[in-house]
Design brief:
The protein is α/β, with parallel strands linked by helices and 380 residues long. The chain is built from 13 helices and 9 strands. Bound molecules: pyridoxal-5'-phosphate.
Length: 380
């Protein structure tokens, strides 16, 4: 009997259905896929929706989960393909993306540089800085975007001189077409789970909107596989960084990127009024916790044992709770896409003394965290 050899690549529905992409898209297997979908009865009754499911992307990696792991399969795949020795990425001080990049770059034998800008203080910022240092990221602090760009030029020169090569650039949040296709794949994975009866076709998916790649990929992917599910991206960052116009461009660029290499990929178009962005859960600004978010995180932790992040997933869940309270979700099938990490890194962070970090980061350990941040809500 002839047996088709299953490789890691075949596990991705995107490569299974469009095999021609395999020759064109760099990919390295990092994630544990498909991620589970769970219906947690205690959570359903706490929120008051009969059909509430959770997509557990927080378990997407064995060392570190989150939405960033799926994107890094392609982005670090590209770094390896270009024989890079070092990657460079960007974010705010507590960036989950920068941490995920540091961890998986380190696992693949690549050096990593995180160029970070100031943000509101929180326990998870401390945690991510310690973990990033443990995983050998070169952590650099810049007070503003122009300084960060100068710093990037400096790091480029330094790498060229010391390693003989420029570092490979990974955009903030991993949100370029190559990273975004990871969430086109994730939409196809969800379709597989619907077909397999793991969950019914959801009416709505709630998730946080940051650099927009996760939502953009899901919107494109769901349409391509013919699911009617509506994505509700809950904006957790200032609008100039997450505008509908930018999001449409990301979706269109990703669609043409895919169609270029896979001519059979469905030619879907997405219009502006299909972007159902929620703008009312940001609060005072990026990484500024809201009392609604903290309440949501509290409820999810007690009823489901899942930790939400005050800057991201807690705000997304507060939008879901708000809609549930208003009755908008009565009788609907709702999926909460959990984008945060829930793997425990305390063994890694326990080995690091914050004094070993560059001096500019010490203030996150010496200053108070914001008053709404209570550690129990925002570990790991
Ligand atoms: C980065 C991040 C997001 C936002 O995803 P984008 O693709 O940047 O929109 C959501 N949740 C968490 C926990 C994140 O770290």
């Amino acid at each position: 009997m002839k047996r088709k050899k299953m490789t890691a690549l075949d596990k991705l529905p995107l490569f299974r259905d469009f095999p021609e992409l395999k020759d064109h898209l760099p990919h390295v297997s990092l994630a544990t896929l498909p991620t589970p979908v769970e219906k947690i009865e205690e959570l359903c009754s706490a929120v008051g929706i009969a059909d509430l499911y959770v997509k557990r992307d927080d378990l997407s990696g064995s060392v570190y989960g989150s939405n960033k792991v799926r994107k890094l399969e392609f982005l670090l795949g590209e770094a390896l393909k270009s024989h890079a020795r070092e990657v460079i990425t960007f974010g705010f001080a507590g960036s989950n993306h920068a941490l995920a990049t540091a961890i998986y770059a380190n696992q693949l034998g690549l050096k990593s540089i995180s160029l970070l800008m100031p943000q509101a203080n929180a326990h998870y910022v401390r945690h991510n800085l310690l973990a990033g240092h443990h995983y050998k990221a070169r952590l650099c602090n810049y007070g503003s975007l122009p300084l960060l760009l100068l710093g990037m030029m400096f790091q480029f020169c330094r790498s060229k001189v010391t390693l003989g090569k420029f570092p490979h650039i990974i955009p903030a949040g991993g949100s370029c077409p190559l990273g975004i296709i990871a969430y086109v794949n994730a939409a196809m994975e969800l379709k597989d789970q619907v077909v397999a009866g793991v969950l019914p076709e959801p009416d709505f998916i709630y998730l946080p909107l940051g650099s927009m790649g996760t939502s953009a990929g899901l919107i494109l992917g769901l349409k391509a596989v013919g699911l009617k599910t509506r994505v509700i991206p809950v904006r957790v960052i200032e609008e100039r960084m997450a505008s509908p116009a930018r999001m449409l461009k990301l979706i269109r660029d990703t669609a043409s990127f895919l169609c270029k290499f896979a001519p059979t990929f469905p030619h879907v178009t997405v219009s502006r009024d299909e972007l159902l962005i929620r703008n009312d859960c940001l609060g005072a600004g990026y990484a500024q916790f809201t009392s609604e978010g903290v309440k949501a995180a509290d409820m999810v932790r007690t009823s489901a044992g899942i930790i939400l992040n005050g800057s991201y997933s807690a705000k997304a869940f507060s939008a879901l709770m708000d809609d549930a309270t208003k009755g908008i979700l009565d009788g609907k099938k709702v999926l909460f896409w959990n984008t945060y990490n829930s793997r425990d890194l305390s063994t890694a962070t326990g080995t690091v003394d914050y004094h070993d970090l560059p001096k500019a980061f010490h203030r996150y350990f010496e200053d108070e965290v914001q008053s709404l941040d209570r550690r129990s809500y925002d570990k790991p």
